[in-house]
Give the backbone structure.
Amino acid sequence: MSVFLKNILYKIQNNEISIEDAVKEIDKMYYYNLEYAVLDTNRQFRKGFPEVVFCQGKQKDHILSILRKLIELSDNNILATRANSDIYKTVVQEIPDAEFNPIANTIIIRKRKPMGIGNILVISAGTADLPVAEEAAVTAEIMGNNVSKLYDMGVAGLHRLLAQSKKLLEANVIIAVAGMDGALPSVVAGLVSNPVIAVPTSIGYGANFSGLSALLTMLNSCSPGIGVVNIDNGFGAGYLASTINHLATS
Amino acid sequence: MSVFLKNILYKIQNNEISIEDAVKEIDKMYYYNLEYAVLDTNRQFRKGFPEVVFCQGKQKDHILSILRKLIELSDNNILATRANSDIYKTVVQEIPDAEFNPIANTIIIRKRKPMGIGNILVISAGTADLPVAEEAAVTAEIMGNNVSKLYDMGVAGLHRLLAQSKKLLEANVIIAVAGMDGALPSVVAGLVSNPVIAVPTSIGYGANFSGLSALLTMLNSCSPGIGVVNIDNGFGAGYLASTINHLATS
Amino acid sequence: MSVFLKNILYKIQNNEISIEDAVKEIDKMYYYNLEYAVLDTNRQFRKGFPEVVFCQGKQKDHILSILRKLIELSDNNILATRANSDIYKTVVQEIPDAEFNPIANTIIIRKRKPMGIGNILVISAGTADLPVAEEAAVTAEIMGNNVSKLYDMGVAGLHRLLAQSKKLLEANVIIAVAGMDGALPSVVAGLVSNPVIAVPTSIGYGANFSGLSALLTMLNSCSPGIGVVNIDNGFGAGYLASTINHLATS
Amino acid sequence: MSVFLKNILYKIQNNEISIEDAVKEIDKMYYYNLEYAVLDTNRQFRKGFPEVVFCQGKQKDHILSILRKLIELSDNNILATRANSDIYKTVVQEIPDAEFNPIANTIIIRKRKPMGIGNILVISAGTADLPVAEEAAVTAEIMGNNVSKLYDMGVAGLHRLLAQSKKLLEANVIIAVAGMDGALPSVVAGLVSNPVIAVPTSIGYGANFSGLSALLTMLNSCSPGIGVVNIDNGFGAGYLASTINHLATS
Amino acid sequence: MSVFLKNILYKIQNNEISIEDAVKEIDKMYYYNLEYAVLDTNRQFRKGFPEVVFCQGKQKDHILSILRKLIELSDNNILATRANSDIYKTVVQEIPDAEFNPIANTIIIRKRKPMGIGNILVISAGTADLPVAEEAAVTAEIMGNNVSKLYDMGVAGLHRLLAQSKKLLEANVIIAVAGMDGALPSVVAGLVSNPVIAVPTSIGYGANFSGLSALLTMLNSCSPGIGVVNIDNGFGAGYLASTINHLATS
Amino acid sequence: MSVFLKNILYKIQNNEISIEDAVKEIDKMYYYNLEYAVLDTNRQFRKGFPEVVFCQGKQKDHILSILRKLIELSDNNILATRANSDIYKTVVQEIPDAEFNPIANTIIIRKRKPMGIGNILVISAGTADLPVAEEAAVTAEIMGNNVSKLYDMGVAGLHRLLAQSKKLLEANVIIAVAGMDGALPSVVAGLVSNPVIAVPTSIGYGANFSGLSALLTMLNSCSPGIGVVNIDNGFGAGYLASTINHLATS
Amino acid sequence: MSVFLKNILYKIQNNEISIEDAVKEIDKMYYYNLEYAVLDTNRQFRKGFPEVVFCQGKQKDHILSILRKLIELSDNNILATRANSDIYKTVVQEIPDAEFNPIANTIIIRKRKPMGIGNILVISAGTADLPVAEEAAVTAEIMGNNVSKLYDMGVAGLHRLLAQSKKLLEANVIIAVAGMDGALPSVVAGLVSNPVIAVPTSIGYGANFSGLSALLTMLNSCSPGIGVVNIDNGFGAGYLASTINHLATS
Amino acid sequence: MSVFLKNILYKIQNNEISIEDAVKEIDKMYYYNLEYAVLDTNRQFRKGFPEVVFCQGKQKDHILSILRKLIELSDNNILATRANSDIYKTVVQEIPDAEFNPIANTIIIRKRKPMGIGNILVISAGTADLPVAEEAAVTAEIMGNNVSKLYDMGVAGLHRLLAQSKKLLEANVIIAVAGMDGALPSVVAGLVSNPVIAVPTSIGYGANFSGLSALLTMLNSCSPGIGVVNIDNGFGAGYLASTINHLATS
């Protein structure tokens, strides 16, 4: 944000812009009204990271315009979630720096060098949980955190998890992703003293009721120290982990 | 049942009973019609154990009459579940042999010497799950099985469970009782090759929705080899374990 | 597993492998880390049957690699569930022994001669329940059990079931599969003394709520001796039946 | 109703009442406005039976006044459901003919001789279903039907039911009452050609979810010819059975 | 059924069949075992109408074989529900008499002349409820009942319904079909004394939860005399109405 | 509010209060911080009516203090909902003007003369819905509206409602209160052009699921022009009706 | 409607029509019976706006015929909701004046000049809520109201909403549309004194359960003055807002 | 824990204890087996805080024994939740240092001086949420954190919250407690960059479904940076906040 502001102030100093126009420009740092969306351009200031674009249910041209405006008004990295290869094709034609992760279904535009502070561990119960786990990992990484991963660590074969105790203990925050019985976060939180973020996934069938089983398991965990996010909400977990990890390393 | 039948046949032999009356008596081995209940007196023959009395919602005098008739018509042990001390007081006045378990809320009348075959292990996640775990244990024991117990083995402190691996491996059947996150059966079934019966309990609050959380967890377990019974259904688990254990030892 | 281990030990004896490399190989018997999955290669040892591949939501090349590695590291039969003809085409090109069951949607690779111990009976209420019933049958068969079948035995025409009493009484374990009202297991368990595994299916419409009606019926059965598995979980039923049947015949 | 009307017309003939007052009285045959309730006095005419008083949640003095007014304005029997002994004490002091059924929780006032037409059979799965079954039986009987009863006929001991086939086949309508798995109506409707009214009860615990399990089973029955009423709604079943039985015998 | 039986008996008389073969043929009147289905050929005898084929989830060749066998073994009309034009094409090639109703999605084969007894009225709340209403009408008609129809009679424009009072009062049974608020059966049952069968449909969106709203409304109707069937179960309503109408006219 | 403000300004004019103290007093018009509650004293200004006290779950002394402070800081009427006679006894000792309505469970303190603008009609389906209907009526009346009432107008006896058409058409807003099938608002909204506020109640049993049935019915009404409030929320309905009626008469 | 009636009366005056035919024509003002639908042609008279066509689940030719008949019989604007471009193509060929809104999925035919009375504000939480918000806006506009809009005003960036306070305060009615957490109506209703109509949308995923989360939030709002409509029911909100706005400006 | 260990080691040094007995004592640092409970005495080591006693459903003498043993084996503070004054009376007789908080229903025994690190803010929406908010505050305080509180900050009067922006921004972690619409955490998380822990409460009635409404709102928040705990789980929120705050200040 500061880059954007400094540029305006320099222009005033150099008489390249009138005071009236400068005020209009600075107003954009509050919110920016597109026809179909009102960008919360102030969010970087309040929350430390610019508005993230939730692509699901948005038109491709709208996504493109929003991304462009965010790039213009922010000097931080940009993240779009729930994208697909079709959206990406439209975006990359105009924003060649945009990167697509086909498992996480994310688009990112890097405007800052990777900081890589602290240590967030993403752990998943099964291979089918990968899209959610990767969304969490991409989110945390683009927000400037070191991210390590341990996948397919379900409690049906507990020795796989116990063999990784060291990695569990080293993490500032652990994001535990699981569908079906959703038991992984309970076991993980029983082993560590740092916060655990539990992400239920919709993986499974029948009485998993699209993730309800894992969600309820996690909300009722007998291990304390767990915060739960929405079903399949890898983004929310990565974001929350980042706020905690930044606190821990500041 | 055979005792009841033999007595009638002896009476015929000794001319103590007419053929007509003998037929009436033998008919009682099929079903016996009280005014308010039709005893399935044939159940011992079909299922290997006489009808079990579910006390909840029945009047005390009805329970007493049913127990008396079962004692008369069966030579196996008798079990009544979901009783209370009030019901027991009524019962024990007329049936002095009746024993009450105030945690399991069961009444039993022993007509056979303990057989103690095989090995059923009842394991519970928390102290509050005791009534359900004890109902399972009493049921399995009265049906002629050896029963051992491990209580308060929740996955929040996994080392307590792992320290008991030997007992887990020795059991023919394991009954795993848990409320809240209901994660215990998944972990147990990951460690053993014998069948695990999972019993969800209503212990917990809020989004446990009176046991729904534990029930769904168990139905969606990522560990194979688990059969689930109704919430708080210790009796059903003990009964099913007994059928399996009897198969295993026959 | 022993075949794999013996081969390594022979190689050491014959100086065909260094101690360091032998240790690495033996480590594979604990777990084996692919990039996207961590095979629980120890499961055959703990549970008596190797890890089963749940194909739903996995990429075809991942399924193929996992199957190959399981074949390499195990000397038991291999089972993959929730496959389809598309996956099978990819698999069979590289693993010509793979067999596909298009009703059960299973892929199997036989490494052991059929043992055919004991007697598991799979019984279904309707013709539409076939895919679930067949998944149960394939699972039990590949795990070394004798399996017999009775389909379309719904309680709307009870005489069809009663005519098969002999088969019901001969089975060590009965797997009763039903959708809609899910009443079949209650009736079956009322007739036999051996354990019954109830499998609710999602067959039906409207207030069946994708199998919830059958699931609740089975959990609340008035006949004791029933263990319930997840909706449409033929695999889980076949697996549990196998653990019980193996106990019964050992 | 006709008695009430005739009395007014006689009074006009005898000049005991003015035309204005007679109109006011006849208006009462349409509806009658008490302060807290508007009696549908026209219901006897439209539906063939006067309004039934649902006592739950009503004040005792209101119930009494409503009953008195119904007695005054109707020449048919009067029924109040969901009453209790406390309400009855208040009622019987002023209406000595009132009869209380402490199992069905009904109050009746007989104004017609029992007609006893046709044949309605009430059948219940368990002893605990009695209050609902009795409410159905009392309702059908007071509406002028012959009612016979078979209690404790649950499918766990199917021979009890099959032994009563003759009674099942003789009934014009069968009311099948069941809690827990609610499987009884499916089995009954498979045996007869006449209509079956299924009444789920809230009997059970855990995943019966206060009668939901039995309700869903009955709605999803694989046997055709079943109509379902609300959980614990014995009154509704008795009423519907009466409309059918009256049709059958008219 | 009698036609089938008589033919066999004639053959015996004429020595066209051995006693052994005759027994085998007569056995088919009990049940007939196809590979994938066990036809309840006894149902015509018990229930007065042969087994109805539920096409959903069945293979086309199976449906065809079942229909052929039913035609062979029954002398009553044949009904298949939840069919489609694709299934019909397969069927009609071999069974040219088969008729398809593209709104009701039914296939019928007429073997008896229309009896047209009594009077069943099918009434629907909206135009979108037509497929369910038509399934009810076709079912009732093929079972030998007179059927009349009133569609688009929703309570938002009550005068449309009140204008048809005469038709409501003339019917032996009314089938009231409604989605969304499901209020129609309550209003209809308030106007008539004969039984009303309520059919909730899944028509609507949002908090109709695929028909749950209409189902609950109908189960909780404040008008007595209503029996409810499953969501979208036009067949079940038509069948139940037929059993009642046959009673009324016998 | 203005009375409170004027008093302070007069005191300044008369030098009865320092500027510092006046500021502190005026601050109370924004919000007022009690230890256990923060009164939104600004609400009268924003919403036109002061904060309403929801008594459920609050301690009696807290309720008393809150009421006193509201009386001090507001010149409008004061309303407390979900009270009981016990709370009222505590309140009336210190606030003798407080009035209790034992059906609506409301406490009111009148500080303004009744305005009685416009015309709000409260209509209920049954006698048992009275507490909710009365809460709506009391709320609307204390907020300055004319309120008329029609109780026990359920759709089972439609003629009772149709006889009141004139009253329905005269109302600016109709509050329609119903439990069980909740069909009343659909029928009412089909007859009038003004807005209808639908209030589901928890009256009923079984599959009414504590008011869910009526709630879903009302949300899915086929009649347009309906706004729904929470189950049993008479207060919310009265408040919303008041905002509409005030608009209509301003 | 009056135009239609006047034309008939003129024809009588001019002897262009017989009295018999005139009566038939005037009868159409009550209801009009198409084969598949019964148009409530009286609705304009009772409700002030003609029947609105709900296209979902209707055949294209039926929709076309219904629209034509409504155009013939009404002199008000015509609205069809839940249409699509395919339906529109069929309609516009025969009704060239028909206009399609591809976001709101509405078809309108204008027969009156825009009145534009009062002031209804439609406010949405996110860009993805647009289809529902637009359906509300189109409905309110075609019913003769001034409509203004504020989109993407979610509570995550509250300053966007607070910056629009003036617009909030100027509206007679506010329609607040939100998915996910559904918090917007609570915040809006806390700021204004006029009625707020809350529209939950199905936007979101996981534990939003297709709009249930937003629906429950809105029903439980801590701000009074809110009426809720069905999930995604923009039409219902626009209609209700219109009835209120018309009251306010009459 | 170290105090306990040191004492044993000193005793060995001083020959006050045999090696065998010392091993037994040190074993208690792993887990300690009471008859009815297995204390996870190792938890202080793994999680940084000893096991917390959940009193609900436990017998008073069991709670007392568990507390005594925890006091003996730990040198950290001790916490018991979901207690009541009755339990406290039993406890305080033997443990005079025990302190009871009658709003939070907690018992604490302080063994360490308050550390008061960092800054956790507990904020509640309403006065009725106090018990849950206080449970969170007590938990965080006893675990060594500075805790500040802001109660009755519901979004219906947003200015109360905005006036406290400074306190919001100063907190390392915010615990936001709300029932009914549960909107508070969404608004709070929109204003700050640090993590927010959302606690839904069961406060409300009707369609709040015992806290489900608030739970779903919080899981679907449009503001990122939120972790959710179980309904009414103040303890879980306080514990999670403590782990985050300790990370932030370490």
